[in-house]
Design brief:
With 148 residues, this protein is an alpha+beta fold. It has 2 domains: 79 residues, no CATH class; 47 residues, no CATH class. The protein contains 4 helices and 5 strands. The strands form 2 sheets. The protein has a 3-stranded antiparallel β-sheet, with no helix packed on it. Helix 1 packs antiparallel against helix 2. It starts with 7 loop residues before the first strand and ends in a 6-residue tail after the last helix.
Length: 148
């Protein structure tokens, strides 16, 4: 996915300029310029210049609005992905539980329970890391390949 610049291009005091607004303004200018150039080339009257320019402006406005809609959809998808990775922070979303009385560590994401808490706290994490890697690979296999 291409990194998005965001909807807002810049702000001048209370005025917020959005990218699709810049695209609209540019399309109007380019539309009139192209219409004038084409009319001069073909020797068309001024009425025809305006008619061609108005269609160019309409096409530019539609293109700018489609860009804005696509940008919003992309931002929604990014926000949704981010939210799914972060979670809600509820207590029900436990990742790992350390029970010192029973010398037990439980990783709730993969359903792994190990009864060697002191060794794990000393840094012997190979078993947990291995289970997490296996779980991650299994999850990747379940997902259909994305169309990139």
């Amino acid at each position: 996915m291409i990194a998005s610049p965001g909807a807002i291009a810049f702000e001048l005091g209370p005025l917020t300029v959005r990218w699709y607004g810049i695209l609209m303004a540019t399309s109007i200018g380019v539309g009139f310029w192209l219409a004038h150039r084409q009319a001069q080339k073909e020797g068309l009257p001024a009425d025809d210049i305006l008619r061609v320019a108005q269609w160019a402006v309409i096409a530019g406005l539609i293109g700018a609005r489609l860009y804005e809609v696509a940008l919003e959809e992309q931002q929604k998808a990014i926000a949704s992905e981010r939210k799914s990775q972060v979670g809600s922070g509820d207590r029900s979303e436990k990742i790992r539980t350390y029970n010192f009385q029973q010398s037990r560590v439980t990783d709730h994401r993969v359903g792994l329970t190990i009864h060697r808490l002191p060794e794990i706290l000393d840094g012997e994490l190979q078993e947990i890391v291995g289970a997490l890697i296996a779980h991650n690979q299994a999850e990747k296999l379940k997902k259909p390949p994305s169309a990139a």
